[in-house]
Amino acid sequence: MHRIGWFDQQVRAGNYPNSSLLAKEFEISRRQAARDIEYMEMSLRAPLKYVAKQRGYCYEDEAFILPHMYMTDEEKKVLGYLALRYRHYNYDHSGSVGRVADLLGRFESTKETASGDRLRLPIFDVHPRTIQHMELLSSAMSEGRSVMILYKDEEGERSLHVTPIRFASRYHADYVLVHGEGDERPTSLRLDGICQISISGPAFKHGPVAETTDFEGRKPARTPYLAQVKLPAALNGDSWNGYRIHALEQLVYTVSFYDADSFLQHLLVAEWEELISPRWLKQKLQSRCEQALSRLNLIE
Known about the structure:
Layout lengths: L1 H11 L6 H8 L3 H13 L5 E4 L4 E4 L13 H15 L6 H15 L19 H16 L1 E9 L2 E15 L2 E8 L6 E4 L3 E9 L22 E6 L8 E2 L2 E7 L2 E6 L2 H10 L4 E4 L1 H17 L5
Antiparallel strand pairs: 1-2, 3-4, 3-7, 4-5, 5-6, 8-11, 8-12, 9-10, 10-11
């Protein structure tokens, strides 16, 4: 839906997008991009028209709008049952459970709006880099590691060496609570302010941190990219400095990642013997290395 939303915006802006442009923007294959466009035409009934002169698409009917996600009657019934059970929960953490019940009750309501529309769920947009950063931070939390962060906000850009504690969500923004070495109290960083991140050494020692939120570290919902990498030595566990791995054969692993730039940065500093796939990632890495060599005046 994120790709389709972007494609819709490009059409409305008169940029005449096509499958090549969509594939380049989201680093997917042209075949996948073509399937997205076909889904818009066949399933979402988008009045797309290919303009040969512009080599891209426009809308034949500019009044068309993308349909929103909505809940079926069956899904409302399930939420209604859960809301009922949660409202009658009088045991541990009943206050938090009651707030969940109120939230579910809002969505399961069978009352329609004044316009007669069905209840629509909000759609949240998230950058793949934010998902990758959450993945790395989650790994550091579970393994008891600290992280190096390049952080940027209204005060400027700075490097931080901190221990991530937990995630929080406030005022429509996601944060991570961190503790620096020697800090008396933890601080919170916005996830969208993190430019780069890498897992470092052991976590810093710190005292107990008050539970200020019930929000737990979330696992990304997006489908990750997969790379096959041959390493110089076998790894223990299911993580390669924060990136999830799965052993294929001797010393060859499948690595999951969400943001290409973050993973390329990792490849530049990590030890490995061969990047087997995907081809587009190998080309990106080669291009980045050639640019670095060019700046050193080592190649023409």
